[in-house]
Design goal:
The protein has about 240 residues and is mainly alpha-helical. Helix content is about 65%, strand content about 0%. The N and C termini lie far apart (about 80 Å).
């Protein structure tokens, strides 16, 4: 038995061992025309095996690059694209810098801090107050989603002072419950709709069960009547005999 551990390594596992064997076979061909023909056939097969590449702009070039990678850059064929090398084929992407800034209240997220900063920079006091009310609405909804409990307005007001460093304040005449009410209304509508759909399914299931039960009773009655008729006919025949 030939175990995978005893076989040659597969350069690109997404194409499987059969494609690796086909590429290895192409490397053994001395006739360049035959080798080119086999390479084109392998490219077509690779496109079928890896169809998600078709959504990319350089779809064909990627397939040819993968072909050369599988052959360990030893396949001598003509390519419609620049032939890659070991240095250019597998370029390691640069590391993305991870933001190191500390968030004061993590359950509100980074976006709330950005919105608060933008509100502080506003010069128009009316717009600042309206923007503060909108941020307070979002903070209450975000807090409720995070804790899954009812949130008091006083808690949101204190958190606003903490995040803004005391520069923004949610006044008593501000309504910070609009988003939460809208979310609750949407949740109630979805729950009511799901409950109605479940009731309809249960009613349909019960109706089907009732139909099946009635059919079974009718069939049993018919069978019983047929058996009685047979027995009566047999009794008459026996008496006549």
């Amino acid at each position: 038995m030939n175990y995978n551990t005893e076989r040659n390594d597969i350069e690109m596992r997404e194409y499987g061992r059969h494609v690796q064997k086909m590429v290895d076979y192409a490397l053994t061909l001395d006739d360049r025309k035959e080798r080119q023909k086999v390479a084109a056939s392998i490219i077509q097969l690779m496109g079928i095996i890896n169809p998600q590449l078709r959504t990319t702009a350089d779809y064909k070039q990627k397939l040819w690059d993968h072909l050369f990678i599988i052959s360990k850059f030893q396949l001598d064929v003509d390519s419609p694209f620049p032939i890659p090398t070991t240095e250019t084929a597998r370029i390691k992407p640069a590391d993305l810098p991870y933001p190191q800034k500390r968030i004061k209240l993590k359950h509100y997220g980074k976006n709330v801090e950005s919105l608060v900063k933008k509100a502080i920079e506003m010069e128009d006091e009316d717009k600042k107050a309206q923007f503060t009310e909108i941020i307070g609405n979002f903070m209450k909804m975000a807090y409720k989603n995070w804790s899954n409990e009812e949130v008091s307005n006083d808690l949101v007001k204190e958190d606003m002072k903490t995040i803004s460093g005391g520069e923004l304040e949610i006044s008593a005449d501000m309504n910070i419950e609009a988003m939460t009410r809208q979310q609750n209304k949407r949740y109630s509508q979805n729950t009511r709709s799901n409950y109605s759909n479940n009731n309809n399914r249960n009613n349909n299931r019960n109706n089907n069960n009732n139909r099946n039960n009635n059919n079974n009773r009718n069939n049993n009655n018919n069978n019983r009547n047929n058996n009685n008729n047979r027995n009566n006919n047999n009794n008459r025949f026996n008496k006549n005999s």
